[in-house]
Amino acid sequence: MPIAFLPARIRPFGLLLALLLAPAIAMAQAKAPPPLVGVQTVERLALAPQSEYVGRLAVFDKVELRARVKGVLGPRHFEDGSKVIEGQLLFTIDPAQFRIAVNQKRAMRDGAQAVLINAEAQLKRTADLMRGNNATQVVYDQRLSEQLQAKANLDDAEAQLQEAELQLSWTEIHAPIGGLIGRALASPGNIVGPDTGPLATIVNERRIRALFSVPQADLLSVRRDLRTGAPLAVRLRLADGQLYPEKGKVDFVDVEVDPTTDGQLARAVFENADELLTDGQTVRVIVEGSEPEKVLAIPQPALAIDQTGPYVYVVDSRNVVEQRRIATGFSRDGLITVTSGLKDGEAVIVQGQQRVRPGLAVETRAVPRPAGR
Questions:
Q1: 85 falls within a domain
Q2: Among candidates 93, 103, 96, which has minimal Cα distance to 164?
Q3: Model's pTM, two decimal places?
């Protein structure tokens, strides 16, 4: 309790006690050990530069199933979200009216075929009569015209029959590709047709592509590596922060610049055998340079940023803390490259920064680098 709030009769004793304890408190503070901090030595590492972009995944094969004829939708032959194989029956449309149309067209074809047979017989008979001078050329020409007309009518009937059979075949909707099918967007009993919209969607996700926009500042190095044939390693960082295990490769850079972003669309292809990646998924695309560079690098925890910019705490040879302003480059694998402000061999604080200030003496403990760095 502050002396001012002590009862009046004991204030002299409190004042005397404070005067007696002050030297001891000052001595204890003077003898307090310096704070312990973890440090790492700055050194040059061989790191390939990398850049990270926001991307979206898109499958190569995607099919929207649509009704090509109008009719009543029958029961579906799949479970939502299941795997389907190429050629598998998925939907049926009531085929009754289309079977009737096929039978009608087949009858018309048979009638036209009978007329042609009779016309050909009449033409042959007239030709025989002409050889015996028992028929005129006019009669023969008439029979020839009737035979040609009958043949044309048969061809038309055949075409109409084929069209009716084709429409009957469209009452069964089969999978044009194998893959995963989404949910059915129409229920049995509804009338569907060409204007209904998709009944379901099939995607083949065994191979997938990541689409991302590359700023003009980074595009030159990407194009340079593509033209020289140097391998551009591309990785994906998923929504949970984990890296996708398979590496991809850039196979396309668009020829036009998007004026709204000042970037160009690039595409990277990935194998997706385990189907972990999904069409439309948002990812972080990491493009790694092909040639490693010797650069100064510090661990991510060493970096701090304020309104002035990035800085680190450096411990000098006397174990005194100094705040050092730095300029940073690219980052990767938990490291940040430093382009200015640090030199080889300097020690930066990576643990315990909250306990230090510039000019404070500290005790240091070396923090080992993770394996592989």
A1: yes
A2: 103
A3: 0.61
